[in-house]
């Protein structure tokens, strides 16, 4: 393991006096730095959703918890609209990946089309989520009436905020590309954006599974987790 | 994927624009040194507010019913705001936002933080969080009086001071602070991992950097727990959800909440709260290691062990949180687990204390003011740590919980000890900021006043705890088990606290006076080896390093090297450039 080898070094010994020219630390690379920062940021996001999830799973076992699917009258027994939203986010993820490819090949019109598609699909996802919230409210599944509802609004809301943050960063990236960024700079930024989009897609799919599970699934998960 | 372009760091172009106007240089600055000073000044100012609040609390405890402006509600509000400001807005901000910002780029040999703009945003977001927090003093009902732990359900129920706007402003302020910390924290870890100059391997970094590095990672992983709990409590308060709120009959009225778990909040809070202790302590551990080594003219004892201990403490700090909740109740096996992990964390911590002592052992100790504060820290930290071992055991914690013994313990270990290191660090690095020393005589006065004064405050407080005097009480009333002598002791503690508070004014005056009129220090006055003292321009200017970045050839602890002319070898001195005493040159083992 590299890190263990690093930590075993004895820096006080004469053999360690010469600077190792091949060290990665001898080179500074802004893209690599941004990539490191993104990794830590994704770790922060992971902890946030992990903690929400743990509290949610614990709450699923309380007497007043009513899962949002499993019975015909529950809103996500038929979760078509959520599948549709998921499709939007998948398409957004694919189109930003395509945009990155076109940026590498420096095909301007294709970049514009694919980034427009990314933005559009992402906004459609947000719009779809808002529609789900409205439908829940119209059907009497208010945020306060049941802990499952509360968690649904909370978790999808926090996820949507992260998506909106991503869109703002992408907008800034496009704005900068219009005026100053070179193709390689755009590519390196799109690599990071792509990673972020993929990660938020992964989180959404996880939330989708979690929030639309039925009572039996929760019981099984709780049994495995020891709640 | 395009090939990323690597730039040799020594030839790295200084892309940061040189600010020319007053606003770009001192207000909207992206220079890490200016941002560090902005962070520090803000943190110290808000810390002074917290200091005044503690003075008012002590007046009430020492001389109950003498001061009409302190009523039971305002007393609880002062306690709450004092705690939260000191832990989050002073200690975390000053140690990481202040010292982290100033020292990281200089110590790793970088021109600035990797993301200067984000760094600037971090400070202004932090300032916003402070403004939101202080705004709660001016809203109807005043700030929250729920205690710094903000436990629901009482934190958001009427009857608790500040249960309307106060608690909301507190939660919003915390959320903003966490955003600010995340922006800063991403900068700190990325700069340390990606912008170290040539030759600066991880194991050549001064321990200050290791402390800041691991503490920042802890912060990035622990603060989300506070954010999550703050968001959920805001929902409970504003929207009426029941994440933490059980079914409650309040003042004869049945509330709409049901099924929530207050204990869940406690778990989330302490999952953040305990690592927070080490978010504060680890940078302090690192800085005190460097101060002791430099002022004892001796390499730090057991450098590798010190690094491993910092990492081990960081890791273990995530699996001890429930020792704050023994009284809340838990499965006995959990209590056993958390007591065990708590005792295990004492091993790397004790290792550090021994290594500081062994660094001092037979060292050429210079009793400078920074060194006095560093040695003072070893005392206060050992005392605070030992009482921590006591409280880590369930059977001892239960009777002592919620007494002044706990207050004395955490103030010694988490209040006084990091503050001692902060003072050591300020006296030590002040010449780097200003090119001047802080006044020595005032510094000695400040040290002895603070060191003896804090002992005069907290030693008797342990005894009050043994007597069973409860914390957070506005007044004891006619309580049979608390003798009158306890009140006399409380009055004595208050007098000591006021004196310690006034001594800090001497320190502030010293800082202001010395900034302009202090004795000039010259370059590298402490003869330190680490990079921050080796800049071309002194004090370091914008961009830190002139045309070429430094190259590092050794670790940061080459002090009292045998046969070397200057008794120390800076990190950026190549082996061929070391000046040896002429007649001993051939015998030096480091040349072979």
Describe the structure.
The complex is a heterodimer of chains A (227) and B (592). The model of chain A has no long low-confidence stretch (mean pLDDT 92). Chain A has a domain at 80-227: Cytochrome c oxidase, subunit III, four-helix bundle (Four Helix Bundle (Hemerythrin (Met), subunit A), Up-down Bundle). Chain A has helices spanning 2-7, 30-59, 80-105, 108-138, 147-179, 183-211, 215-225, and one strand at 27-28. Chain A is 73% helix and 1% strand. By secondary structure, chain A is mainly alpha-helical. Chain B has helices at residues 22-27, 32-62, 72-108, 116-135, 165-194, 207-239, 262-295, 303-316, 332-360, 369-392, 394-400, 404-434, 440-467, 484-517, and strands spanning 7-8, 249-250, 253-254. Chain B has a two-stranded antiparallel sheet. In chain B, a hairpin with a 2-residue loop joins strand 2 (249-250) and strand 3 (253-254). Chain B starts with 6 loop residues before the first strand and ends in a 75-residue tail after the last helix. Chains A and B meet through strand 1, helix 2, helix 5 and helix 6 of A and strand 1, helix 5, helix 6, helix 7 and helix 8 of B. Strand 1 (27-28) of chain A pairs antiparallel with strand 1 (7-8) of chain B, so a sheet runs across the interface.
The quaternary organization reads as heterodimer
The biggest beta sheet of chain B reads: 2 strands, antiparallel
Helix percent of chain A reads over 70%
Structural class of chain B: mainly alpha
**What is the averaged pLDDT score of chain B?**
93
The largest interface is:
A-B, 54 and 70 residues
How many separate helices of chain A? 7
Please describe the biggest sheet of chain A, giving its number of strands, its sense, and whether it closes into a barrel: none
Counting DSSP H or I runs of 4 or more residues, the number of helices of chain B is 14
* CATH-defined topology of the domain at 80-227 in chain A: Four Helix Bundle (Hemerythrin (Met), subunit A)
CATH classification, class level of the domain at 80-227 in chain A = Mainly Alpha
Q: Structural class of the helix and strand makeup of chain A?
A: mainly alpha
- How many DSSP E strands of chain B? 3
């Amino acid at each position: 393991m590299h890190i263990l080898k690093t930590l075993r070094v004895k820096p006080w010994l004469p053999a360690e006096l010469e600077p190792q020219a091949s060290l990665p630390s001898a080179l500074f690379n802004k893209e690599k730095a941004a990539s490191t920062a993104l990794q830590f940021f994704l770790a922060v996001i992971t902890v946030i959703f992990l903690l929400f999830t743990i509290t949610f799973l614990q709450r699923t076992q309380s007497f007043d918890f009513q899962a949002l699917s499993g019975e015909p009258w529950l809103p996500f027994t038929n979760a078509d609209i959520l599948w549709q939203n998921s499709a939007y986010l998948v398409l957004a993820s694919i189109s930003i990946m395509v945009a990155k490819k076109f940026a590498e090949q420096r095909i301007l019109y294709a970049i514009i089309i694919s980034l427009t598609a990314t933005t559009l699909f992402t906004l459609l996802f947000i719009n779809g989520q808002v529609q789900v919230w409205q439908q829940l409210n119209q059907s009497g599944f208010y945020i306060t009436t049941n802990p499952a509802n509360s968690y649904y609004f909370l978790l999808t809301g926090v996820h949507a905020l992260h998506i909106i943050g991503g869109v703002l960063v992408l907008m800034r990236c496009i704005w900068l590309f219009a005026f100053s960024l070179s193709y390689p700079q755009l590519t390196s930024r799109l690599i990071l954006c792509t990673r972020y989009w993929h990660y938020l897609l992964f989180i959404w799919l996880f939330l989708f599974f979690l929030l639309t599970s039925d009572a039996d699934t929760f019981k099984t998960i709780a049994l495995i987790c020891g709640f | 994927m395009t090939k990323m372009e690597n730039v040799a760091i020594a030839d790295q172009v200084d892309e940061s624009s040189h600010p020319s106007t007053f606003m770009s240089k001192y207000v909207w600055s992206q220079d890490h040194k200016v941002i560090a000073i902005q962070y520090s000044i803000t943190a110290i100012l808000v810390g002074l507010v917290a200091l005044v609040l503690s003075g008012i609390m002590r007046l009430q405890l020492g001389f109950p019913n003498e001061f009409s402006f302190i009523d039971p509600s305002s007393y609880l509000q002062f306690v709450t705001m004092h705690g939260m400001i000191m832990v989050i807005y002073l200690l975390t901000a000053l140690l990481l936002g202040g010292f982290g910002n100033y020292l990281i780029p200089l110590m790793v040999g970088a021109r600035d933080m990797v993301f200067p703009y984000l760094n600037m945003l971090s400070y202004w977001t932090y300032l916003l969080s402070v403004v939101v927090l202080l705004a709660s003093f001016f809203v109807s009902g005043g700030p929250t009086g729920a205690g710094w732990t903000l436990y629901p359900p009482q934190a958001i129920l009427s009857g608790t001071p500040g249960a309307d706007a106060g608690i909301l402003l507190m939660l919003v302020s915390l959320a903003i602070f966490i955003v600010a910390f995340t922006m800063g924290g991403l900068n700190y870890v990325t700069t340390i991992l990606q912008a170290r100059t040539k030759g600066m391997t991880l194991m050549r970094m001064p321990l200050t950097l290791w402390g800041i590095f691991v503490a920042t990672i802890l912060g990035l992983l622990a603060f989300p727990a506070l954010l999550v709990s703050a968001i959920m409590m805001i929902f409970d308060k504003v929207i009426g959800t029941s994440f933490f709120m059980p079914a409650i009959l309040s003042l004869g009225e049945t509330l709409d909440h049901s099924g929530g778990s207050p204990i869940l909040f406690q778990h989330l809070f302490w999952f953040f709260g305990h690592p927070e202790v080490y978010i504060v302590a680890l940078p302090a551990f690192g800085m005190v290691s460097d101060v002791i080594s430099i002022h004892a003219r001796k390499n730090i004892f057991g450098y590798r062990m010190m690094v491993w201990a910092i990492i081990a403490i960081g890791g273990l700090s995530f699996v001890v949180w429930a020792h704050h909740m023994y009284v809340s109740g838990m499965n006995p096996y959990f209590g056993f687990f958390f007591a065990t992990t708590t005792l295990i964390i004492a091993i790397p911590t004790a290792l550090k204390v021994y290594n500081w002592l062994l660094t001092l052992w037979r060292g050429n100790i210079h009793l400078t003011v920074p060194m006095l504060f560093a040695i003072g820290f070893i005392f206060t930290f050992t005392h605070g740590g030992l009482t921590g071992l006591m409280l880590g055991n369930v059977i001892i914690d239960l009777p002592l919980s919620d007494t002044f013994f706990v207050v004395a313990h955490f103030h010694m270990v988490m209040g006084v000890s990091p503050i001692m290191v902060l003072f050591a660090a300020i006296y030590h690095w002040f010449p780097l900021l200003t090119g001047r020393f802080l006044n020595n005589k005032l510094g000695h006065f400040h040290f002895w006043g603070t060191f003896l004064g804090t002992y005069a405050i907290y030693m008797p407080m342990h005894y009050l705890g043994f007597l069973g005097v409860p914390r957070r009480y506005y007044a004891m009333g006619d309580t049979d088990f608390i003798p009158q002598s306890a009140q006399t002791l409380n009055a004595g503690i208050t007098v000591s606290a006021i004196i310690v508070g006034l001594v800090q004014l001497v320190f502030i005056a010293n800082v202001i006076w010395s900034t302009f009129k202090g004795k000039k220090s010259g370059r590298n006055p402490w003869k330190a080896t680490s990079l921050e003292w080796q800049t071309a321009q002194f004090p370091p200017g914008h961009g830190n390093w002139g045309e070429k970045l430094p190259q590092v050839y050794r670790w940061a602890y080459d002090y009292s090297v045998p046969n070397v002319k200057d008794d120390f070898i800076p990190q950026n001195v190549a082996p061929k450039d070391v000046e040896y005493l002429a007649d001993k040159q051939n015998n030096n083992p480091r040349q072979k």
